[in-house]
Write a structure and sequence with these properties.
The complex is a heterodimer of chains A (575) and B (442).
Chain A: H1 7-10, H2 18-41, H3 45-50, H4 60-91, H5 93-108, H6 118-124, H7 129-142, H8 145-157, H9 161-169, H10 174-209, E1 210-213, E2 216-219, H11 223-233, H12 236-268, H13 282-289, H14 291-308, H15 323-326, H16 329-357, H17 360-396, H18 399-414, H19 421-431, H20 435-438, H21 441-445, H22 448-460, H23 464-472, H24 478-511, E3 513-516, E4 519-522, H25 526-535, H26 539-572
Antiparallel strand pairs in A: 1-2, 3-4
Chain B: H1 2-7, E1 14-24, E2 30-41, E3 46-50, H2 57-65, E4 72-77, E5 80-81, E6 89-92, H3 104-114, H4 119-132, H5 148-160, E7 166-170, H6 178-193, E8 201-206, H7 209-215, E9 218-223, E10 228-234, H8 246-259, H9 290-301, E11 308-310, H10 311-318, H11 322-334, E12 338-341, E13 344-347, H12 349-356, H13 359-373, H14 375-386, E14 391-393, H15 394-402, H16 407-424, E15 428-430, E16 435-437
Parallel strand pairs in B: 3-8, 3-9, 6-7, 7-8
Antiparallel strand pairs in B: 1-2, 1-4, 4-5, 9-10, 11-13, 12-13, 14-16, 15-16
Helix pairs in contact in B: 3-4, 3-5, 4-5, 7-8, 9-11, 9-12, 13-14, 13-16, 15-16
The chains are: A mainly alpha (575), B alpha/beta (442).
Chain lengths: 575, 442
């Protein structure tokens, strides 16, 4: 084992540069902050209650920093989960038969549904802040992990044959293969999913920090609980401050984390097109140029490389000896019987748990509520499509405009829509509107952007030749939309609409119930049912609501979105 | 070369005996890709595997590399059977297979890192290989910054740096333009001739006949369906070999003759369209566009050929690789527009008539021949005629074809019949609904 010596030792002439100074300040500020937080973690909940959240904007930077850190920890946890779960699912066909459908279900479960796990975390460290922190982080994690794991799984399954053969022919061991082939290959898709996950995380961080299940209420210092308090106190000024704080945090995340990641993903890109200039990021430049940070990178690199050098050179087995065909029949039978037994037990337990407390008639009623929410989601997606598809196409065919608009759309998607609730709710109250209708737009406020930016991407992928050809033939007006623009963006639109639809189901739990001070507005629907059951601490009803919603989402995906997506892929994709 | 004479006396480096490879079809039947392949590779020689696409030569290369295992038979490398990727056998890929996220240097180092060598050793050997192969100055470049030729140089450096005994090359020059390929080939041959390469012998898969004659000491010709070695041609021209040399031309001609010869055991008389006796609709159709078919007929009809052309000559004139030329010639033969034998292509009466006709007449003639001589086309037409709706789903024919061939081949065969049927206006196909029909849009 050898350790990498610091560059300041190895180089005789080491002059710290501009990038070093910036990196030095950033790194040590972060460490100091981590120490501070770790101190707070060991504190007791009673201590936390003694220091209630204050609406004074002076405290806001600290709250924002704590929230940002929670998001970061959740993101790291999601990455670890992604690397292990998805790898296991991709490498073992037996594991995949269970893990992949499980992930599909987990992805469809509304995020707030996971709040029933809070009690478990609180019980883990009674009276301590750590348990509440873990619960909050776990909630954020559940809004981030699933799509990342899916993306990684798909990437692992679609590694090009020649790279796979090359890795095997040159005797790459599993560890080296993972870091040299699989992770870099999966990176671009994983990064865009991380960005989406981050948006999802922001959306639910408000709910995660102000935890209340039944009689247990814990308020962790953070932007989320600041907003919750502002809503209770009806302080529009505080809401404004919170929006500003969130804006800053999202911006910092974008600059320090996602910009450099996307810029470096351009290096990872599989297509080897010439003349493609990778996007730029000052933070990436800093990481590349600063010797201090490159020391950190080198340390991480050699840590991974230690794995390359351990043990004897392994000869991978030939392809024929792997997979199902080679595994003994007996093993399969045993495996599937165990799986079947566990599933049967689970179904029985859940069924008993739910039906013991809830009359069967109510199950029918809940399904009915599901249809109400379904109508809302469908109408809203249709409305959002009518509005955003033309706008997206308009922006997309103008490259300069598209370059400006796309990051804005991405940013808007990350913006937690709960912040707009106060405005909407007070409007509903003042104008005496019907909450059944007017609460609904909240569901799509956060998710409509997926439609917009996918359409922008689709329209900008329309080749210059096609544009010239249609201009040359004099195709314009409605004919241009019908024959050229709409078919070109259709596959992209479908991708965006699928994401938006899933997100809207999720958001219904937050959107069908809204509070503004003592005013409590409810729209009839499955989301409201789940939200009410959760805040009343009614576990059987929460479980029932979640199960029904997951069922709706999965069935909708299978019966509607998947065929539509397959059709779009087949018919409209050029080449 | 002295090494050649010596080689005969040395123990073989690689020896395959009775290697078969078959894949299981969805219905449980076996699809034989390689049948009883015996091949010996001695130190100091470059051996070429020539065959049409689908002859399983790339599959054989993967078996030798240990990337896949044979269904039966043995692959011996230096006297021991190959089980899994063997050390000492390195491979150069048609698509380069470079890791786009690694620099040139990192790509070259990869195989050495996997062998757990010391860092100093890795660096020394990588820089040597980069130097040898002419990549100096490009160490820190990413693959996407390089041209195709430079990328393949990285592919070579990466393979050579592990000091393999055998270098396997899977159509290494076919993704490059003609001039680049030529440069890279002669650079490689120079290094090989000067004994600068660590490798002891080379196995080259190619469909480029000139390339094979230029590089190899021995050529093995593969047949298709199933892949088998049908003949062996020694090449004993001195290096450097010039394509203008009459002996070079004669060898190229001989390879063409061998590759257009009837598979052994087939009757020497009678129509040749039923290459696969008894299969009828199960005949594999390689996709050749109707444009290429027309172009080939016209070229053979025109002076100086006047209806009969030498395949190497026509390939050169039309700038066709053999993997395009042979399927086109086969298709014309199947449609009875031409006869292919002894490295020549000769138009039949129908072929001559086709060449003389205008568009509409050509279509009628093509349709008549298509429905008469291609059993699958006749079958599709018959099914459509018999149904009152005159509509039949693609899946119906796909399922039938799957009894005879692998999924991808069936897909390709259907694609071919759709394209020919459309040109002949014999039937129509709607890709969106995936149905055949008799209606053509008015």
């Amino acid at each position: 084992m050898r350790f990498q010596l610091p560059i300041s030792v190895l180089r005789t002439r080491y002059v710290p540069g501009r990038w070093d100074v910036i990196a030095f300040i950033l790194v040590f500020a972060f460490f100091a902050y981590l120490g501070d937080v770790a101190h707070g973690l060991t504190g007791s909940l009673a201590h936390l209650e003694a220091q209630p959240i204050s609406l004074d904007p002076r405290y806001l930077p600290d709250y924002a920093a704590q929230t940002a850190l929670r998001m970061l920890v959740a993101m790291v946890a999601s990455l670890v989960f992604t690397f292990t779960y998805a790898t296991l699912a991709a490498k073992s066909q037996r594991a995949a038969t269970v893990l992949v459908p499980l992930l599909d279900i987990l992805q469809s479960v509304p995020i707030l549904g996971f709040s029933i796990t809070i009690v478990f975390f609180l019980a883990l460290t009674p009276g301590r802040v750590a348990g509440a922190e873990m619960a909050a982080i776990f909630l954020v994690f559940t809004s981030q992990a699933w799509n990342m794991a899916f993306s990684f799984y798909h990437s692992l399954r679609s590694i090009p044959d020649e790279l796979d053969e090359c890795a095997r022919a040159f005797h790459l061991g599993p560890w080296m293969r993972f870091w040299r082939l699989e992770v870099p290959f999966a990176m671009p898709a994983l990064i865009s999913n991380m960005m989406m996950s981050m948006s999802g995380g922001w959306f639910f961080v408000v709910a995660a920090e102000a935890i209340s299940v039944g009689h247990t209420t814990v308020t962790l210092p953070g932007v989320g609980s600041y907003i919750a308090l502002a809503i209770r106190e009806r302080s529009l000024a505080a809401i404004g401050w919170a929006i500003a704080a969130m804006f800053v945090v999202i911006l910092i995340y974008d600059q320090i984390l996602f910009r450099p990641l996307t810029a470096s993903a351009d290096w990872f890109r599989q297509e080897q097109e010439a003349g493609l200039t990778p996007s730029r990021s000052w933070a990436l430049t800093m990481m590349r140029r600063s010797r201090l940070l490159s020391f950190g990178r080198a340390a991480f690199g050699s840590m991974i490389q230690l794995g390359f050098n351990r043990g004897p050179v392994r000869t991978p087995r030939p392809a024929g000896a792997r997979g199902f065909a080679a595994s003994p029949l007996l093993g399969n039978v045993a495996w599937y019987s165990v799986v079947a037994a566990i599933v049967a037990l689970a179904v029985w337990r859940i069924g008993r748990f739910v039906l013991l407390h809830i009359p069967l008639a109510e199950v029918g009623h809940v399904v009915g509520l599901g249809f109400l929410t379904l109508i809302r989601v469908t109408v809203l997606i249709a409305l959002a499509s009518v509005i955003w598809v033309p706008i997206g196409v308009y922006i997309g065919v103008r490259p300069r405009l598209a370059r400006t608009a796309q990051p804005i759309a991405q940013f808007l998607a990350a913006f937690p829509v709960n912040l707009l609730f106060p405005i909407v709710v007070s409007a509903i109250v003042v104008l005496k509107l019907d909450p059944n209708i007017w609460l609904s737009p909240l569901m799509i406020l956060g998710t409509q952007w997926y439609i917009l930016f996918n359409v922008i991407v689709g329209a900008s992928s329309l080749s210059a030749d096609l544009k010239y050809a249609s201009a040359n033939l004099g195709v314009r007006g409605w004919l241009w939309w019908r024959r050229i623009a709409l078919p070109a963006v259709f596959p992209f639109y479908v991708t965006g609409a699928i994401t938006a639809s899933g997100g809207s189901w999720n958001a219904s739990i937050v959107a069908e119930v809204a509070d503004w001070g003592s005013r409590h507005l409810t729209a009839a629907g499955l989301g409201a049912y789940i939200a009410d059951a959760t805040s009343a601490g009614d576990f059987p009803r929460t479980v029932l609501g979640i199960a029904i919603m997951a069922l709706f989402v999965v069935v909708l995906n299978r019966l509607f979105w998947r065929p539509l997506y397959a059709r779009a892929e087949r018919k409209f994709r050029v080449s | 070369m002295n090494a050649n004479a010596l080689a005969l006396n040395l123990a073989p480096l690689l020896d395959t005996r009775g290697v078969c490879k078959s894949f299981r079809k969805p219905d449980g039947d076996e699809l034989v890709v390689l049948e009883n392949v015996n091949l010996t590779l001695r130190p100091g020689e470059i051996v070429g595997l020539l065959g049409r696409s689908g002859s399983g030569k790339s599959t054989l290369l993967r078996l030798i590399a240990g990337l896949d295992s044979p269904s039966s038979g043995v692959v011996d490398y230096q006297g021991a059977p190959v089980a899994g990727p063997a050390r000492g056998i390195a491979m150069v890929f048609q698509s380069f297979a470079l890791f786009p996220w690694l620099t040139v240097l990192e790509n070259v180092q990869l195989g050495l890192e996997a062998l757990r060598l010391s860092e100093a050793e890795i660096r020394k050997r990588s820089l040597q290989a980069i130097d040898l192969i002419g990549l100096d100055g490009f160490e820190s470049a990413y693959p996407r910054e390089l041209s195709g030729g430079m990328r393949q140089r990285v592919g070579f450096a990466r393979a050579l740096v592990v000091h393999p005994s055998i270098l396997l090359m899977d159509e290494p020059f076919s993704a490059l333009d003609v001039l680049t390929a030529e440069t890279l080939r002669s650079d490689f041959l120079d290094l090989w001739g000067e004994g600068q390469l660590p490798i002891r012998s080379v196995l080259l898969v190619t469909h480029n006949i000139e390339e094979a004659v230029q590089m190899c000491d021995r050529l093995l010709i593969f047949s298709t369906h199933p892949g088998r070695v049908v003949s062996e041609i020694p090449v004993d021209l001195p290096h450097p070999r010039s394509p203008a040399d009459p002996r070079f031309r004669a060898l190229v001609e001989r390879v063409y003759v061998e590759m257009t010869a009837r598979p052994r055991g087939e009757p020497r008389t009678g129509p040749k369209s039923e290459r696969f006796a008894g299969t009828g609709i199960g005949t594999v159709l390689i996709h050749v566009s109707s444009n290429l078919l027309q172009g080939l007929i016209e070229a053979v009809y025109a002076p100086p050929y006047n209806g009969k052309a030498d395949l190497p000559a026509i390939a050169a004139e039309l700038q066709l690789e053999v993997d395009e030329l042979f399927p086109a010639a086969d298709a014309l033969q199947m449609l009875r527009f031409a006869e292919v034998e002894g490295g020549d292509i000769r138009l039949t009466e129908a072929g001559l008539a086709f060449a003389r006709s205008e568009t509409d007449e050509r279509k009628h003639l093509f349709a008549r021949h298509l429905l008469t001589y291609v059993p699958l086309a006749a079958h599709v037409r018959r099914v459509l005629d018999e149904r009152s709706s005159h509509i039949a789903p693609k899946s119906r024919f796909f399922d039938e074809l799957e009894d005879y061939m692998a999924e991808e081949t069936a897909e390709q065969t259907l694609r071919t019949i759709i394209s020919w049927g459309r040109y002949a206006e014999a039937f129509a196909y709607d890709d969106q609904r995936q149905v055949f029909s008799l209606e053509n849009p008015a």
